[in-house]
Each structure stands twice: as structure tokens, then as C-alpha cells.
Amino acid sequence: MSPLSAPAGIRGTRGTRLAAVVVGLCWMVVLFDGLDLFLYGAVLPGMLDDPDLGLTPGRAGDLGSYATFGMLLGALSAGTLTDRAGRKSVIIGCTVVFSLASALCAAAPTLGVFGLARFLAGLGLGGLLPTTITLVAEYAPRGRSNLMIGLLMTAHQAGGILAACLGLWVVEPFGWRSAFWIGVAPLVIAVPLVAKFLPESLGFLIARGRTDEARRLARHYEVELPAAAHAPTAPPGRWSALAALFRDGRLPQTVLFWGASFGGLLLVYGVSTWLPTMMRGQGYELGSALSFLIVINLGGIVGMLVAGRTADRFGAARVAAVWFGCTALGIYLLGVHMPLALTYAVVFLTGLWLFSAQTMVYATVAGRSTTENRATAVGWTSGMGRFGAVFGPWLGGRLVDGDAEGYGFTVFAVTALLATVLMALTGAHRTDG
After folding, report:
1. Closest by alpha carbon to 63, among 28, 99, 106, 115?
2. What pLDDT sits at residue 7?
3. How far is it, in rounded angstroms, from Cα 381 to Cα 236?
4. Are 299 and 173 in contact (CB under 8 A)?
5. Which residues pair with 141 in a beta bridge?
6. Which pLDDT score is estimated for 386?
7. Phi, psi of 244 (to 5 degrees)
8. Other CB atoms closer than 10 Å to residue 266's CB: what's the count?
9. What's the CA gap between 290 and 171, in Å, rounded?
10. What CA–CA distance (Å, rounded) separates 110 from 185?
11. Given CB 3.0 to 4.6 Å as the disulfide criterion, which of 136, 294, 388, 405 pairs with 265?
């Protein structure tokens, strides 16, 4: 592999402190990303019960897909833009977009306006995740890239827990709109902090020939420049970074990554949107159903840390394949009405495997990409996966609308099995990704 083929990592104690700053700030914005994403599923039962809206399960599935379609476009465009304009500016721009869109959701007078707001939110949400993953991978201490990515993504699950708490504590007394007003918080909390303290990627600055800027940044944080400082390159053409994903025998692997991401995000967004409603359809009370959303995200937090640590030792692709297989079993069991304590245990384990399996897909792509096209590779893998994210909520809505919630668990389980096969075919025996 070339010197730029994987995140170089930052050496030394001060480098570790710098990585902590980057991970901490990115963790904060990803927390708000997760809050906004999971908020719709958390308040959906309240929206369905609101007679003024006239919302049906089928229409609710359509609305859920609007956001994920926006995320598709956001991920595809942000990846290419990030490799040209830089990581920091894209992170700030995406956070501003989904924060303002949350305000529009809260004030939406009609379902049409609400759907437009969710689409706009998706543009920001879809661009943020691959960009923060790229930046964290580039600042991670050497040999700890997968762990740092897993740590970053615990914020997404923490955002899901926060969303579920809002669904439990805010929606009933204050109405579902109040939860979306809270979603405006990153505009005044996160954006100023990121603008002031988040450094641009050293590898990006060097790859673009901005070596003086990179040296000033390295002196400021008292870290060494990446070893590839001698190899600046011009900004890639609009399509050259994308075309690189298909050259030199990379076509089969790229397609497999996209397919696995499709299946993984279908599961993440389908389950996140419809889990409370589907569990209520299985006979659980609304309070318990929303509690399942908290538990599955708690499992997700643990899973990110376990998967990241395990992937640094055995390879992210291998972990993703095994985790998807375990996810299939967990989701299938959720379709069986069990004692409540056992159900909570299965929900927790399903969350442990589900969310980190998809994250390890991203980690594999980041680890097998070059500095010049890493954001594009991760962005397009995320973007192609967003087709699954669009399809998942829509599919869940159709199943619930047809009183076929039980079949939803089987469909999601089969999807997880397919993702297992696809990740295994990418070369799960390798340990470089």
C-alpha cells in the first residue's frame, strides 16, 4: 500500500491530545445528528395520535423516507465537496442546515412543509457523518483508527437515547413540536465551538499543497506533520476521486461495499424509525416500546466500543461480517413475543451488533482509501447506502399499514444476512480494514 493509502495516524502524547480534541468536537456534532435522526421515530407515535395532522402509518413511512433521501444526496455531494474544500467547513455547513431544518419541522403548518423540512435536514445529516468519520480517521492515534471511529459513533446512539427520552418526557406534556424546537440547539452550541476549535485535516492540507498552513497548525498543536508531507497534489477534478474507486481492480470491492451499506442503513433507519411502533404492535405498551429505543441505542454505544477495539485487532471487515450475522439473529428473535426482561436483553444485544456493523463498513472503506479520495469513498459508500435508508422507513410503513408488523422482523433479518455475505466477499480475512 502507498504511504497515503490509509490514515497515517498521529504519534506521541500531544498527538493523542489533539485526537481527543477532534474526536470530542466531532462527537458533539454527531450527538446532535443522532438526536435529529432518531427524533422522528421517537415522536412518531405522538404524531400518529395527533388528530390535527391526519397522519397515517403509510404516510409516516413516506415522511421518514424524505429525510433519508436528503441524506443520500447530502452524503454523495459532501464526500466530493469535502475532498475539494476541506473537512471543517463541510461539518459546520451540515450542522447549520439540519439545525435550521429542525426549526422548520417544529413550525411546519402542513405535512407537506414538514416533509420538505425533513428532506432539508437529511441534506445536512447525510453530509455530516462521512465527513466526521474521515476527519477522525485522519487524526486517530496510529493503530487506533477503528476504535476512534467506534468511539465517535457512540454519539449517534447517545443521540438516539436523547431522542427517546424526549419522546417519553417532552412529547406528552408539550406536544411533538416541542421536541423539534430542541433540535435547534446545535446552531447555538456546537457551531461556534467547532468554528473556533476544530482543526482542519493535516493530511488534507498537505495533499492540497497548503503546506505552510499545515506547518502552522502542526506547530500550534505541537505535533509532527504526516510522513506524506513531501507529496502534495492538486485538488482532484469533480469526478476523478470517484473514478478512482473503480480503477485498478477496485470495482468489485466498491460495489460490495455499496451493497453492504445499503443493507446496513436499511436496517439502521428501518429499525430506528419503526421499532417503537412495531413493538407496540407486538402487544407492548407505548412506554415499553419507547424504552426499547433507549435500550437498543445503549447496546449500540457498547457495540461501537467493542467493535472498534476488536476491529483494530482483527480487521473492520471481519467484524462487520460477524456483527451483521448476529444482527440477523437478534432481529428475528424480536418478532417472537417473549417475557419482558428477555426482550430487553435481545433488544440490547441487537443494538450492540446492528449499529456498529454499519460503522465498521465505513471504517473498512476509510482504512482502504487514500488521503486524496478518502472522503469521497466514505461519502459515496454512505450515499449509496442511503438508498437502503430511504427504502427501510418506507418498507416499515407499508408493513405496519398492512397490519404485518411481525413480517417486518423477518424481512429485516434476511437483509442482515445478505449484508453478512457482502462484507465477507470484500475480503473479511484481511486485517488492514
Report:
1. 115
2. 47
3. 19
4. no
5. 10
6. 79
7. -65, -20
8. 30
9. 12
10. 23
11. 388
**pLDDT for 360 beyond 70:** yes
For 90-112, give one letter per residue: b (16+ CB within 10 A) or e: bbbbbbebbbbbbebbbebeebe
Distant-in-sequence contacts of 174-178, Cβ < 8 A, 24+ apart: 175/46, 176/43, 176/46, 176/47, 176/50, 177/105, 177/106, 177/107, 178/106
Task: Give the integer Cα–Cα distance in Å for 281 and 426.
Answer: 37
Phi, psi of 201 (to 5 degrees): -65, 125
* CA 183/CA 199 separation, integer angstroms: 25
For the chain, the residue count is 433
pLDDT digits (tens, 9 = 90+) for 299-332: 989 999 999 889 988 889 999 999 999 999 999 9
Residue 10 has phi, psi (to 5 degrees) of -110, 130
Residue given cell 447517545 in the structure block: 158
Residue found under cell 458533539: 28
Model pLDDT, residue 290: 65
